[in-house]
Amino acid sequence: MHTPATPRRYLRERALAEHLSVHRSTLRRWVARGLMPAPIRLGLRTVVWDAEEIEHWQAARAAAPRGQPE
């Protein structure tokens, strides 16, 4: 029996920045420095992040020892 796949949820840049309480330029800086998952480009001007990947990244950050550089 085939179980239907759960559709992926995506976050646009503005929604992700609001969710993380940071400026959109901070997201870009973190991506450039390899500090967070890279976005997925869906079109010329459409950039999104996989919500599940962001949730895993946040959990890993929360579990990391404090005082460590990001």
Automatic annotation (TrEMBL):
Q: Which domain of life is it from?
A: Bacteria
> Which species is the source of this protein?
Thiorhodococcus minor
- SUPFAM superfamilies reported in the protein's UniProt record: Putative DNA-binding domain
Can you name this protein?
AlpA family phage regulatory protein
